Amino acid sequence: NAGVTQTPKFRVLKTGQSMTLLCAQDMNHEYMYWYRQDPGMGLRLIHYSVGEGTTAKGEVPDGYNVSRLKKQNFLLGLESAAPSQTSVYFCASSYWAGNTDTQYFGPGTRLTVL
Amino acid sequence: EDQVTQSPEALRLQEGESSSLNCSYTVSGLRGLFWYRQDPGKGPEFLFTLYSAGEEKEKERLKATLTKKESFLHITAPKPEDSATYLCAVQAGETSGSRLTFGEGTQLTVNP
Questions:
Q1: In Å, how far are A33, A49, A60, B60 from A55, measured between CA atoms?
Q2: Hey, are the CB atoms on B46 and A103 less than 8 Å from each other?
Q3: Would the CB atoms of A58 and B99 count as touching at under 8 Å?
Q4: pLDDT band at A41, cuts 50/70/90?
Q5: How far is Cα A27 from Cα A22, in angstroms, rounded to an integer?
Q6: Does A99 touch chain B (CB under 8 A)?
Q7: pLDDT of residue B95
Q8: Given an 8 Å threshold on Cβ–Cβ distance, is A104 in contact with B104?
């Protein structure tokens, strides 16, 4: 049981390049999330999904797109990377337990945009 | 708008020196308050969920408490392996899959 995994772990892009970050979970969780973590800003929600085929915007969605074609995978895309997108990206997944859903996080992807 | 403020930003303790971390929050309709631990270069690791004022939860040397305005994470007789950043987050709203609003964290260092 690997939990939440993220690919790649590190990436360096040039401004204007595109890339896709992959998140996979093997816990059969319904909900998945993408966050970014920046110094002094804490964790901020980019996009999330409440089920296969559905996505929704979070707090900071501009410049990112997502897709949830399979329940276990959640993809985060950057179509034209900018230096402001240099950050550490975390994926999380959760299940509804009657009152709340506890989010479990992956190990992160450190992205640098030059 | 939901807000979470953690204090202090950083805390240095000697091994065995007990202390508390604070998480104050403003939220409409709290469903849960979460504590996570984050080690350098890793993702947040879930510790506790608190649901209502007066609730307490314990895990080894950690004890989390909740009031209507704040939560405390008490660390009793800490060890160097307790060194990490501790994150607090709140979840509000009626629907499932609701977002978490995080504080900026408290960086704890425990010296041997």
A1: 9, 4, 14, 38
A2: yes
A3: yes
A4: confident
A5: 16
A6: yes
A7: 57
A8: no
